[in-house]
Here is the input.
Amino acid sequence: MNRIAGHYDNGLDRNPANYAPLTPLTFLERAASVHPNVWAVIHGEVRYSWSQTYARCRRLASALARSGIGRGDTVAVLAPNVPAIFEAHFAVPMAGAVLNAINVRSDPAIVAFMLEHGEAKIFIVDTEFGVLAKEAVSNLRAPPRIIALNEIVHPEGAAALAGEQDYEAFLDTGDPAFAWRVPEDEWDAISLNYTSGTTGHPKGVVYHHRGAHLLALGNTLAWNMGRHPVYLWTLPMFHCNGWCFPWTLAAVAGTSVCLRKVEPKPIFDAIADLGVTHLCGAPIVLSLLINASEADRRPLPRRVEVMTAAAPPPAAILQAMEKDGFHVTHVYGLTEVYGPAVVCSWHDEWDELSPELKAQKKARQGVRYHVLDDLMIADPETMVPVPKDSETMGEVFMRGNVVMKGYLKNPEATREAFSGGWFHTGDLGVWHPDGYIEIKDRSKDIIISGGENISSIEVENVLYRHPSVLEAAVVARPDDKWGETPCAFVALKDAGKDTAPEDLIAFCRDEMAHYKVPKSVIFGPLPKTSTGKIQKRILRDRAKQLRAE
Amino acid sequence: MNRIAGHYDNGLDRNPANYAPLTPLTFLERAASVHPNVWAVIHGEVRYSWSQTYARCRRLASALARSGIGRGDTVAVLAPNVPAIFEAHFAVPMAGAVLNAINVRSDPAIVAFMLEHGEAKIFIVDTEFGVLAKEAVSNLRAPPRIIALNEIVHPEGAAALAGEQDYEAFLDTGDPAFAWRVPEDEWDAISLNYTSGTTGHPKGVVYHHRGAHLLALGNTLAWNMGRHPVYLWTLPMFHCNGWCFPWTLAAVAGTSVCLRKVEPKPIFDAIADLGVTHLCGAPIVLSLLINASEADRRPLPRRVEVMTAAAPPPAAILQAMEKDGFHVTHVYGLTEVYGPAVVCSWHDEWDELSPELKAQKKARQGVRYHVLDDLMIADPETMVPVPKDSETMGEVFMRGNVVMKGYLKNPEATREAFSGGWFHTGDLGVWHPDGYIEIKDRSKDIIISGGENISSIEVENVLYRHPSVLEAAVVARPDDKWGETPCAFVALKDAGKDTAPEDLIAFCRDEMAHYKVPKSVIFGPLPKTSTGKIQKRILRDRAKQLRAE
Here is the structure.
């Protein structure tokens, strides 16, 4: 197989006519030139066509370049789903730079860590998060230049950002005919996404242009998107670059309907008034929809496709969704694989099953995306695939072009994540006889609350800082609204016997983003293995029972 | 822009976990594992599911490997649209080798040239073309080993191939669990397609795995293919690998309905009985459908999508097609760009136009495929783009990942084709203000008859071999049935004054494939420029008038 190929390798090399780096940026140029008058972005009264969006992106890229931003520089964004963050997905890489979209729910110390670790030079901040941004940059030795997105009137945030350059004024300094270029190498970084991971410090996951191009196309193959879908942004664009959907929407010349806040009424209004056809979201978005009040509801003018991840949609929710006219596709992925890389690809014959069996099928994470090259459940020690018997547990492994470049400035974590030539997801599951995977247990420590990853170790570290705490272990507790909430099991020191659960919760609220704060704190000795390791599995079972009670 | 990227380039290299060569072969593995029971191939009574097709492809790949076939070796196929040629599209590259699918309408000398030039080691031959194959290999110094496809009873062909290895028996020597591997480099050749081009000898266009993967996905984006399309093979798979649709169908887990002969009745039967949703074809296929007799027709159970290329569909044909329930998408491409690389992407607002204006819009070749990186109409000398004024003629240029590796063993033609960093199509057209291109004149010399390219120079060369011929020029004459037919203008020598047109036609029939033979021969002096060059444009006008008469 490795012989010299001879004439097929001779004089048939790459040249500018037959090779171009893969990048999602060319989708934007195509959407603007082929469908210039189709709406690209709708946000309240604001509407931009694809030609307008392209011009705005070129302006922004040009303004960034004129500000000295170039290849390998980082531009951070702290904003909800508004047009500017959509534009940044194109404009930042068009300037050769790397987009770091930051979770708006992060606390200031984490934002500061990301800005410093990612070496952001420019920081585009929505006024609503002006206070958070200012607090984050206040202690940085080399704070980034702030561009203020004054889209809404937010007095406190505006006051914090007073004197900073206005986003629209910044765009005005740019050239709408800016001669941007595709990257010289498709392996060049396009974005940086911090994941809370299982250890304390966030890890910076680096995406490249090749992977972003491929996952953008992979989304169209995994989901029935059709011509000019109208996509509602219920999934934050700061999560894995909105699962690469900004780039997908450019490929299919679809319309992005932006939503600053995910609430039932604007969602039903957008579906009824703007013809929304597709939306993505964590299970909390599904709950929101089926539990909406009659006042907030509007009839669906057509079936709406919903893609969901993070936790399998329960049968009751699926049935309620379908009754309401939504059709749910279940996907699975991680920040490290650009968002969704596994899809529960539906078989027509499953339509005939009972609702319960249908939900059982749909609760499975499924099979690899077309653009993920390989997926397996294997023994984490030996990396030997487990039998496809629906029973033997193993770790989920993936490999292919939609696996990250690696973790920024973290060679050890990168090496570990890729050891043995596969990406180690840390998630545990089983393999069914038909090749569909099902996650049985998330990586031990992560709690997913309202679609946000919470590192239990991070919460534990805070608890350990309280003077009364002897030992602490934080696990997920099932929650009807949030999917999961953090539940802390704490052994107190003798000297701290008077401490109440409320005291620890108040302590945590001062030390971390509020969504990470344990909702319940249970005192008592922690179960341990013979070698002294805390048995989180037992604690998870206890937390589950708390729910049942 | 070229500064050192620093930490984004540091320790974030390719490795087996995050990089895989792009290849369409992984689509087959996915279709077989995700949708094992969906039909992959239907051919009369024969049906193979995707898992069966995958097993057959692994058998064939294994049998080829055991026969000594490996990287860079050529396997030629001479067959109509039967399951074996579909299987070869996967199995040959799974063995690391290069597929050369040969036009069954070629004459023996051309087949011999291709086999010799491409250095085919194995030659899979359908019995129907046994005589042609045997004649072609009879004079080769190193004839390939023949594998005989005895799918039908064809006494003459079977006699010619008597004693050769049978295809099914050959498969039986292979391992259905063969551990094939993706190519080590996505730039590796996957197929070889000879084009008649404008000069005498066919040129061997080499495709690579990367381009085949991308065009396969590009087809799904350009065309509304949905889930599990049922695709009818009216387009020969030996034309640009069936425009890469074998690989596309694996990506979408669709069903290939094979047809040995393109005739109206089996087409309507397949649509009515097998639920065909999509088909491709030259305009002759469209004519065949709308001119079908009542006896051959069946009502369409649903709208059927038709992709057509080679010549713009005339308004009358489009209207008739739509009336019959077909929906036509117009694409444009060349062998050098894997088939279609330009699509007349439809705008919803054009639905409101009159049938004539609609046809005018649809007659335009359109805009680049998503996977073609750039398209322009430019001055062929200066390569400066022409204005988008619908009037200024220029040459069509393309560049990107779906442009061939180059011409096999033909560095000069490769260099010419790619000069200036663009692929020179040789086609002339205009650019409309909305960015859609329209071909006004095909590359001067090519005649497209029934979807087949005929090189006028090749026909002229034969005519010149007749003792009575002084000068000959062959141009296209419009033809209602075939699109075009070759029309020869001939100046006779004094000594040949008694030669009749019929004599030259008979002479040609002995010397070339019958479809290339001029249907009309006109005697007289040839118009020339001041520098003595024959003015083919004037002859084309005369040929057009012949039709009007």
Summary: The CA atoms of residues 40 and 53 of chain B lie 7 Å apart. The radius of gyration of chain B is 24 Å. The first helix of chain B runs from residue 25 to 34. The first strand of chain B starts at residue 39 and ends at 43.
